[in-house]
Write a structure and sequence with these properties.
four-stranded antiparallel beta sheet; 309 residues; six-stranded mixed beta sheet; D-Maltodextrin-Binding Protein, domain 2
Length: 309
């Protein structure tokens, strides 16, 4: 199980952001090559019981390791997905009841057993000011599937054989037969997060450090093994984010992360040791939130060598 601890003992708690983070983190704490379905527990978050909702300010989150790259083509780790889930969006998303909801697609239908049609949201802009449309969907998916330079999550997209643009705001996803888990795949930010084609062309391989999506936050800076900073996207098509900024700090040592939490240097800790949970669960300054999610973790046994041979 993944866990997150959040306290506002020394700063206000933004309860609206907790909802955003609980959804985003549960969706994005994904293994390198997950199956299309499966069940798992998702992160927990703790917050001060007396905190009141407010708007604005900066939330600082501590985590043990840094991201690999802020690009759906190269990132499959949890630290990267925690950030990407606020920068990029998918055609659909999972809610807390594990029901698919509209995101960049307003509606969809299975027009044939092997063909899904998505009607896209109009008026959406990427962080660079370019338009989101069907061409961007086709570009993003085909970029991951490119057989000459596949993305790390390309195996998730293996059932997809074509992405067809019907018009500017309608796109068909064609599979190699009836494929029930397609909507799940279309909700995974590390597999089908929609990127700005113009930004990919502009930055090339450096796009991973200059990410451009349509999400409620946009990229500010990344200091390797130190911190990643994102800020509110004031041009977001949906409800505005309740925070001005979110800072993801890398603090490798468990004891140092928890000390930073206790002193108010950070307000949330990702992936604390299980032994820490009861300590904070029993602390009146903290409230532990638990959110269901989906995740598949594979354990492979080396049966060809001792002691399992």
């Amino acid at each position: 199980m993944n866990h997150a601890l959040n306290t506002g003992r020394h700063r206000p708690l933004w309860t609206a952001l907790l909802l955003i983070l609980s959804l985003a983190l549960s969706a994005c704490a994904a293994p390198a090559a997950p199956a299309a379905g499966g069940d798992a527990a998702a992160p927990e978050a703790a917050a001060p019981a007396e905190a009141a909702a407010t708007s604005g300010g900066t939330l600082v989150i501590a985590r043990p390791t840094d991201a690999v790259g802020l690009d759906p083509k190269v990132e499959t780790t949890s630290p990267g997905n925690w950030v990407m889930s606020n920068l990029y969006e998918n055609l659909v998303k999972l809610d807390t009841d594990l029901t698919f909801q509209p995101a960049l697609a307003e509606s969809w239908e299975q027009v044939e057993p092997d063909r899904w049609r998505f009607n896209l949201r109009q008026g959406v802009k990427f962080h660079d000011g370019t338009d989101f449309n069907a061409d961007a969907v086709k570009f993003s998916i085909e970029r991951i599937k490119n057989p000459d330079d596949p993305g790390r999550s390309a195996s998730n997209l293996r059932p997809i054989i074509a992405v067809e643009v019907v018009d500017d705001y309608t796109v068909d996803i064609v599979t190699d037969g009836a494929y029930g888990p397609l909507l799940n795949i279309m909700s995974l930010v590390y597999a089908t997060g929609i990127v700005s084609p113009a930004a990919v062309e502009q930055y090339g391989e450096d796009f991973t450090r200059n990410p451009v999506g349509t999400g409620p936050f946009k990229f500010v800076e990344w200091r390797t093994n130190d911190q990643i900073v994102i800020e509110r996207n004031d041009d977001y098509w949906g409800d505005p984010a309740p925070l001005d900024q979110v800072v993801y700090r890398v603090i490798p040592e468990e004891s140092a992360r928890m000390l930073a939490l206790d002193t108010g240097e950070v307000q949330m800790v990702m992936a604390p040791a299980p032994s820490q949970l009861d300590i904070y669960r029993d602390d009146p300054n903290f409230t532990l939130y638990e959110t269901p999610g989906v995740r598949v973790i594979f354990f492979g046994m080396m049966t060809g060598r001792a002691p399992l041979d």
